[in-house]
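Operator note (shift B, R.M.): manual run for AP-5 complex subunit zeta-1 requested after the automated queue skipped it. Running by hand, logging everything below so the morning shift can see what happened. Input copied straight from the record, untouched. If output looks odd, do not overwrite the archive copy; leave it for review.
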Amino acid sequence: MFTAGAESLLHQAREIQDEELQKFCSRVAKLLQKDDPGPDAVDALQRLFLIVSATKYKRRLEKTCVDLLQTTLCSPKCPEQLQLLCAAILRERSPSDDLSLSCDHVQSSQQLSLVALVLLAQGDRKEEVRSVGQRAFRVLESRQPEGPSLRHLLPVVSKVTRLAPHSIHEDQTSLLSKRLVDWLRYASIQQGVPHASGGFFSTPRARQPGPVTEVDGAVATDFFTVLSTGQHFTEDQWLNVQAFSMLRAWLLASSPQGPSALDSDDKSELEGSTLSVLSATSTASHLLPPQERLREKAFEYCQRLVEQSTRRALRKGDADLQKACLVEAVLVLDVLCRQDPSFLYRTLSCLKALHTRLCGDLARARALLPIAQFFLRHGEAAAVDSEAILQHLFTRVPCELFHSPTLAFEFVRFCGDSLPLFGKNPDILKQSFPNLFKLLAWNSPPLTSEFVELLPWLVDPGTAVEMLHALLDLPCLTAALDLQLRLSPAVSERPLWDASLRNPSCLEASRDPQFQALLQHLLRAKASGTVERLAPLHQLLQPMASCARVAQCAEAVPTLLQAFFSAVTQFADGVLANQLALLLLERCDSLYQVPQYEARVHRVLSSQFLALCALHPSLVVELAKELLEFVGSVSSVRSRGAMLASVAWAIGEYLSVSWDRRCTVEQINRFFEALEALLFELTQSRPSATLPECPPQVIAVLMTTLTKLASRSQDLIPRVSLFLSKMRTLVQSPALSSMHREEGAAAVRTRATELLTLLKMPSVAQFVFTPSAELSEPRYHRDANTALPLALRMVSRLVEKEMGLLPG
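Run finished. Output pasted below as returned.
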């Protein structure tokens, strides 16, 4: 991340002790007390800034040094470089209790911007934001619009507006609105004069500057905007650029209802028939109040930017600026239409034409997002159907531009910000989750948290099963997207892929028709309502599993699964719970083989299987056939041990008449025999390639489940007692002890002893292992005089006596 030299400097700065730092502060203080500090003071302040900024914790500085830093910052005669360094050091120490800095007497806007940098970092503990704002407006009032140093003031005003919009008075709002109108609409259209170098060849007869030009090189014939170009710029042209950068925030903050009112009360609910009348009877611009006049000029400015965006830029930097300004212009138009519906009629034709033009230009796809949001918000009032615009956006953009990290982030943020607007038409968003998952698969680290918040809005009973399959196949989707890019013709902005796989073996095999259908299903744009078994595709794409991007995506899946199940359990009925539980059993052995991915996913699936059983206990009886098939195989005990333990625990907990009246003794006996055979095979056979070592946790759960089942069908008690006795003896043998660590073998032996002791009293065992529903109430666990604590104490004493811990 840093060069070796930079790392060395940072290390030295972090290692400086307090005593050495105080000596250095004394040296800095002496330098600052000189009439002419000079380059030595600059060098010392640069070193001090490195020291205070190199660590996360606040470094203690001498009070004398801190006072001199503040004095130097506020001194009007101090060089700008020294003031900037003093402000940076003081800001690194914020918030600070020993700061006595004030902006009340600062006259220079440049100096005020540096003082504000420190005060606004204090956190408004002493109303610093309000004092900075008031001082900034007083300086603004004292200067003419063409003042030479207002460029430093606007960023301060913009930040105060965001932090404390209600601290600005009405007359100050009107003042700034008037100034913004002047800067936006009446900036000079002549280029600025270059600064004279003062050299031998400089003469006062230099060529006069020409007019500003458009991005395509044509001479500008309309007013100046941020997209106007030239060699040099005048002061009011720089103010024009700054004014546009803060325009949207100022329109929101200076609205009479405040910045948050637009989100809760959309003014565009007026009838569409009145819009043309309102727009046709507009008042003369100069007679309007300042706020309304600013809106009018902002509308003209945005229309001019939309027109300028149609020009072909000569430089790439100008082309990028066109895209950014187009997005901002549409966002400003959205705010204007929300504040004043009379703008809606004039904006519709402009944005419709813009959308038609952008649909064929994917290089400017970013601008489609605010356009879609505009029509989502205003489509009903303007009698415009936004569905076609959304269908194009959700179908084409993620498919073709998933590899653009900036667009991916903005697309997902657009979805999150527009959730309230999707209220009447949520199907487009929900049906498009396969396309949205492409953004997630390719950009999983930065987008994981956004999708955790978005998933509850995407999933519903109709898409839950298909979405769970898609989440489990997300790393495979990443590999398929990588393969798709490698097979596609050259594109202008081809993303980088893992160089270690220059020509993966699956590149040619993927063209085989038998894999094309599976690839098309995995890369589908919308929910299909069908599920395909992708095991052949997993094998085909296995060479891609070592790609770093695939590994990153695999790390994000467990978090996404947790978010998915948190949402699903809020509405899942018995039918959906059964479908999801069955899916978990099926997909245990059908995951894309990425290192450590299977183990991580199994941990989540096992916990969520238990959550589904707790939500609908009857699924154990309803899925009896599938559960018996699952526990009947020990071929993958090592990989799915967590899932096997959860299934066994759920069988022992919920296979009971108390949970489902359909449970029969025959079912209990069948499960007992299957689990008994499984446990026997796991413990009697030595580990091999086909029968791996079984974790002691799984053995303990299986023994407990067998005991629970025997307590409900007491004819099985002699069988399980004999088995547990053998287990207690077997686990002490060297053959089995070598399979497990000492603590694992001891845990299995202890559990077998406890279960044997309980089975000696069948009625107590049934009471402990199958308590009635009312025993789950807290009072049965808190009150020492109720039956359950008494029974547990009696059982504990019997177990301790059996183990020889008490004399007997």
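Quick read of the result: Confidence is low (pLDDT under 50) at residues 263-283. Residues 426-488+504-616 form one domain.
Leaving this for review. - R.M.
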